[in-house]
TrEMBL record:
Name this polypeptide is given: D-3-phosphoglycerate dehydrogenase
Domain D-isomer specific 2-hydroxyacid dehydrogenase catalytic: 3-312
Domain D-isomer specific 2-hydroxyacid dehydrogenase NAD-binding: 105-280
Reactions mediated catalytically: (2R)-3-phosphoglycerate + NAD(+) = 3-phosphooxypyruvate + NADH + H(+)
InterPro entries (UniProt xref): ACT-like_dom_sf (IPR045865), ASB_dom_sf (IPR029009), D-2-hydroxyacid_DH (IPR050857), D-isomer_2_OHA_DH_cat_dom (IPR006139), D-isomer_DH_CS1 (IPR029752), D-isomer_DH_NAD-bd (IPR006140), NAD(P)-bd_dom_sf (IPR036291), PGDH (IPR006236)
Keywords recorded for this protein, A-Z: Amino-acid biosynthesis, NAD, Oxidoreductase, Serine biosynthesis
PANTHER family for this protein: D-ISOMER SPECIFIC 2-HYDROXYACID DEHYDROGENASE FAMILY PROTEIN (AFU_ORTHOLOGUE AFUA_6G10090)
Protein family membership: Belongs to the D-isomer specific 2-hydroxyacid dehydrogenase family.
Source organism superkingdom: Archaea
The D-3-phosphoglycerate dehydrogenase ASB domain, residue ranges: 323-440
Amino acid sequence: MKVLVTDPVADAGIETLRDAGHEVVTGYELEGADLLDAVADANALIVRSGTEVTAEVFEAAPELVIVGRAGIGVDNIDIEAATDHGVVVANAPEGNVRAAAEHTVAMTFAAARSIPQAHGRLKDGEWAKGDYLGREVNNKTLGVVGLGRVGQEVAKRLDSLGMDLVVYDPYINEERAAQFGAELVDELTDCLARSDFVTIHTPLLPETEGMIGAEELEAMGDAYLINCARGGIVDEPALAEAIENGPVPGAALDVFAEEPLPEDSPLLDVDDVIVTPHLGASTEAAQENVAVDTAKQVLAAFAGEPVVNALNAPSVDESAFPRIEPYLDVADTAGRIAAQLLGERISGVEVHYEGDIADEKVDLVTASALKGVFSPLEYEVNAVNAPQLAEDRGIEVTESKTRQAEDFQSLVTVTVKDGDAELSVCGTLFAGDDPRIVRIDGYRVDARPYGHMLVARNRDEPGVIGLIGTVLGEAGVNIAGMFNARETIGGEALTVYNLDERLPDDAVERLLDDDRIISVDRIVLDDADNGR
Ligand SMILES: NC(=O)c1ccc[n+]([C@@H]2O[C@H](COP(=O)([O-])OP(=O)(O)OC[C@H]3O[C@@H](n4cnc5c(N)ncnc54)[C@H](O)[C@@H]3O)[C@@H](O)[C@H]2O)c1
Ligand SMILES: O=C(O)[C@H](O)COP(=O)(O)O
C-alpha cells in the first residue's frame, strides 16, 4: 500500500508503516495540483494541520482508504466529503494533549509576566525592569472555555498553582466540572466576566467560529486571553482593538485564522500580544505519540480492522471485534442477495440480530449489511459511506435484536423493502467461521455464499430439477452445489445453485420459457465480476 505524508511527522510513525511493508512517500507542503497528483494512487494520507484535505482531494484519490490526522484538530479535513467517498478519517486525540496543556500554561505565564517582551528588550541592551509589573496566577480565576482533554489538563495544572476555576462547556455536567475543582456556568459571558485569565479549548466548529468577539472581549474586562486551540474561534481584529483600546490587558496566541504566517492579522503589530507559530503539539514525545498512533490506525484500516479513533465510521469496540468480524461478511452477503432478489427500488432495510450476536454492538455489522444492499447498485460503497448513502437516499434503516435464536447460535437477517414488497435473507456461521445462507424469502436453505449463485423458483413438480440441470449442462455451466426447498408438496419450491460461472442470458430465457419455472435470479457475490 502507498502512504502519502504531507506534513512533517515523527520518524517513528513512518518506520511503523515501512516495517509493516508499506511504501511511505513524504511530500511536505504539497498543495494545489501537486497534492492532487501525489494523492492519485495513495491508499492512505497522513496530515497534520498544514494540509487542507478538501473534497477535491478525495475526488482525486480513488484508492484512498484512510486519512490519518497526526494530532487532534480535524478542521482542515472535509469529513463529509471523506464519508461520501467511503474514506475513514481518524485522528490521534491523546498523544499531544499534555504538550498542548503545558504550552498553554507556559503561554499563561508568558502573558502574565510579559516574558517575551522583557526578553526582547534586554537582548536589545535595555534593562526595562521598571516597565513590567506582572500578575500572579495564585488566587486568581481561570476561565476555561471547553473542558475536554486539553482543557482538563490545563485545569489540573493551573488548579495546583492556586487558581480558582470557572468553566463554560455546554456539553458537560456540573459533576464533571467538579471533578476538576471547577464551577460550571451556563453563560459564556458569565465565565469570561469572572476570570482573570481565559483559556480557550474548544474545537473550531461552525458553532465556535468567532465565539470570542467584541462583546465577549468587553465581558472579559481586565482578563488575559490565552488561545492554544484554533484560530478562527477568536475574532482577531476585535481582539487587537480590545487590547489596544481596552479593556483586555493582553493575549497569548498559538493559533491563527490564517496559517502559516498570519501576515494580515492585526495582532502581530500589538505589543501586548504574545505569539508562537502553532507550537502546542511540538514536543518530541507528543510528535512520536501521534505519529505512531496514526500509523497504527492506518495499518488497522489496511487490515480491515477497527480504526479506534475513526471519526466517520461506525464505532466498534476493539475487544469485541473478533466476535463480530465473521458476521460482517455474513451481513454483507445477506444484503447483496436480498437486494438482487428484490430487484426493485429499495426504500427500507431492516437488519435483525438473533442469539449471541444480539449481545454485541452491531453498528458495523449493520453498516456491512447496507454495504451489501448497495453493492449491486454503487461502485464505491463501503461500511463507511453506506449509512450515509442510506440517509441521502431517504432509505429507512432499522435494527432490531432478540436474544433467542431458534436453531442457530447467531442469526443475521437482512430484509429489503419497497412499499409492500419485501424480501428477507438470513445468514449464520456454522462452526463459528463457515458462512451459510439459511433462509431466503422464508424458504429454509443451506447455501454457501460465494461467486455466482442462481436462485430459481419453480412449481414443485417432477422433472423440474432435471430440466434446470440439462439447461445448465447444455450452456456449459458447472453446478458446484445445490439446495432445494419447498413449502408444500406440489406447491412452490426454491432452489439455490452455486455455479462456477455466470449463467448466459439465453439459458435464463430457456428456463423461463418453461411454465413450471416461476423466476430465475442470477446473484453475484464477487465485486470483481458483477456484470458491470
Ligand atoms: N495548539 C496546538 O498545537 C493544539 C494541540 C492540541 C489540541 N489543540 C486544539 O485544542 C482544542 C481542544 O482539543 P481537545 O483534545 O481538548 O478537544 P476535546 O474534543 O477533547 O474537547 C473539546 C471540548 O470543547 C467543548 N465544546 C464544544 N463546543 C463548545 C462550545 N460551543 N462552547 C464551549 N465548549 C465547547 C466540548 O464539549 C469538549 O469538552 C482543539 O481545537 C484542538 O484542535 C491545539
Ligand atoms: O490539533 C492539534 O493536534 C494541534 O493543533 C497540533 O497541530 P499540528 O499537528 O499541526 O502541530
